[in-house]
Amino acid sequence: MQPQVVCVYANLTEVDEYLRPYCYDSDNQPQLLRPQSQVTRALVRWCLEKYWSLPAQQVSFSRDQHGAVELWVGKKQWSVSVSHTDDCCAVAIARTGELGIDCERILERRQRVRLQQRFADGYMQGVSSLEQFFERWTAAEAVTKAKRGALMPTLASPLAGLEPHLYWHRYESWQLCCYSTASNSPPQWIDFSKDNHLS
Fold first, then answer.
1. Rounded distance between C-alpha atoms, residue 149 and residue 123, angstroms
2. Rounded CA separation 134/107 (Å)
3. Are 115 and 134 in contact (CB under 8 A)?
4. pLDDT tens readout for residues 44-97
5. Domain for residue 199, yes or no?
6. What is the rounded CA–CA span in Å between residue 111 and residue 24?
7. 99 vs 6, 26, 38, 139, 157, CA distance in Å?
8. DSSP β-bridge partners for residue 88
9. 38 in a structural domain
10. Nearest in space to 40 (alpha carbons), one of 68, 8, 14, 72
């Protein structure tokens, strides 16, 4: 049975050689992995081949008017979201539905307390720890990507009502969050390195 929503994440320092066969430029010509956008696109191709049995050559990408990545399998558009920070990247894929993903390294930030205070009536309501901050921050980023909105208005709005569509996952020192209306079931989280026995 094929999954409804798949979220794949990877440590960028471990994936170069293995993902090279899945890297193409816009003309579908093999290309070296960097920059990070090529890694995330290669992860999407790998995931579609492994979990949906779709050949990488059938997969193409475009950008919408906001600059967000669009995923095409043949002539059919699928839902996709990508994120990368430091040495981590993540992709979320589904056939349909609103979809957003974010990954952030859990590190103290100079602006954290100020942001918690500024958005205390919105996404940061009740937040008191660094871990809670990054759970809410990644949620805001994921929702913003899914709805093609702007981050500051998302942070200022209430989180209530969105929880059934938010799914968190911790990977090493990174916090990940997926927002999905594609299914009532949680996404399938996949560690690319473990799935390919790289670590």
1. 15
2. 9
3. no
4. 999 999 999 999 889 999 888 878 889 999 999 999 999 988 888 999 999 999
5. no
6. 38
7. 11, 23, 20, 12, 19
8. 11, 85
9. yes
10. 8
Contact between residue 39 and residue 12 where contact means Cβ atoms under 8 Å apart: yes
Distance of alpha carbon 157 from alpha carbon 199, whole angstroms:
40
Model-level pTM greater than 0.85?
yes
Residues 6+ apart with CB under 8 A from 68: 81, 145, 148
Tell me the CA distances in angstroms from 90 to 119, 141, 185, one per residue in order.
26, 13, 19
> Is residue 153 domain-resident?
yes
CA dist., res. 181 & res. 105, Å (int): 25
Number of domains in the chain: 1
Residue-number span of the structural domain to which 26 is assigned: 5-194
Output phi, psi for 26, to 5 deg: -65, -20
